[in-house]
Write a structure and sequence with these properties.
- The protein has about 300 residues and is an alpha/beta fold.
- The chain is about 35% helix and about 10% strand.
- The chain has helices at about 5-10, 15-25, 25-35, 40-50, 55-60, 75-90, 110-120, 135-140, 200-205, 215-220, 265-275, 295-300, and strands at about 125-130, 160-165, 175-180, 205-210, 235-240, 250-255, 280-285.
- α6 (about 75-90) packs antiparallel against α7 (about 110-120).
- The longest helix is centred in the N-terminal third of the chain and has 16 residues, at about 75-90.
- The radius of gyration is 23 Å and the shape is elongated.
- The two termini are about 40 Å apart.
């Protein structure tokens, strides 16, 4: 629940140390929970508010105002203008296919494929331990609550968030859930090529569901109910959002790593496979024990980052 513990504490002039002592947790945990109040267990909420002298009903009725999202403007406007001119030139001019030359000319389609790659935005990837606030951070960067968050580890699928302007015209809704085979190339290897998202036939073959943000709750998070396996098969969620940040980049939220020794699991496999597409990698870990030895081992072994971490 979104209770502004920090504001109440500062209004009463109570220190973080006093709160930590009263609840029986560390000061680092107090700092973490003040930053991510939605992660505070209900039992602790009651005790915390008693220390602060606040009524729980009143506190729960007052929501924390959302942080403004990042506003980068339109950084690629000039690049896109020039690419559009190149595409227009190709479309309006013939390339003399009847010429007989000793070497084969590159086709104009090849040039257009290369141009289309320059339309692709960089990928900002959020990875790290579960319950470290990755999805909460993503929502903060976007300036709106889009991804499900909670005290328990939430994210189950690779979640790719793009600007709504890049949504194909035939795409019905804001969220699409796709299976793993969507990303496989002709050799059966995973290839996170975002141009696949413009291939309507490919999408219709591999999309499991299209719809609203409610699909993220159904397919994208762990339900901790073994009797419900309705979200089996979901590998990636494609989410289209009208957020300023997404004019500059795509935001990708990955399943989290366990705080125990990393066993081979679907979550770990998905997280490791998708780090290869990161242009910017943000690694999150809990405030207590931030960037410990286990974090460093994971960073060193992430695909595409080996030998780059010092």
């Amino acid at each position: 629940m979104n209770i502004n513990f920090r504001r109440y504490r500062e209004q009463k002039g109570i220190s973080q140390e006093s709160v930590a002592t009263g609840i029986g947790i560390s000061v680092d945990q107090v700092r973490h929970y003040e930053q991510f109040p939605a992660q505070v267990p209900m039992g602790m909420v009651v005790k915390w508010l008693q220390i602060l002298g606040e009524d729980i009903a009143t506190a729960m009725s007052q929501e924390i105002p959302p942080l403004p999202g990042i506003e980068p403007g339109r950084p690629y406007a000039e690049l896109y203008r020039r690419l559009n001119l190149l595409n227009q030139y190709i479309d309006e001019n013939s390339f003399l296919p009847w010429l007989e030359l000793p070497t084969e000319l590159r086709r104009h389609n090849d040039l257009q494929e290369q141009i289309n790659k320059y339309y692709q935005k960089p990928n900002v990837v959020l990875t790290g331990a579960f319950d470290s606030g990755k999805s909460y951070l993503a929502n903060t960067l976007l300036g709106q609550k889009v991804l499900p968050t909670g005290y328990q580890p939430a994210t189950r699928v690779i979640t790719i968030v793009c600007h709504v302007e890049s949504r194909p015209g035939w795409f019905d809704g804001n969220v699409g859930i796709i299976d793993e085979k969507f990303w496989q190339d002709e050799n059966g290897k995973l290839n996170f090529d975002f141009l696949y998202l413009e291939d309507r036939e490919r999408c219709q073959k591999h999309f499991l569901q299209l719809g609203s943000f409610d699909l993220l709750e159904k397919y994208g998070v762990h339900q901790y109910d073994d009797s419900d396996d309705s979200n089996d098969g979901g590998h990636t969620a494609i989410v289209y959002v009208d957020a300023p940040l997404l004019r500059a980049c795509n935001l990708i939220d990955l399943p989290g790593y366990s705080d125990k020794q990393d066993e081979v699991s679907k979550d770990v496999e998905k997280a490791n496979s998708a780090t290869k597409i990161a242009n910017v990698l943000l690694y999150a870990s809990p405030a207590k024990g931030h960037i410990n030895g286990q974090d460093m081992v994971r960073l060193r072994n992430l695909p595409g980052l080996k030998h780059k971490i010092r």
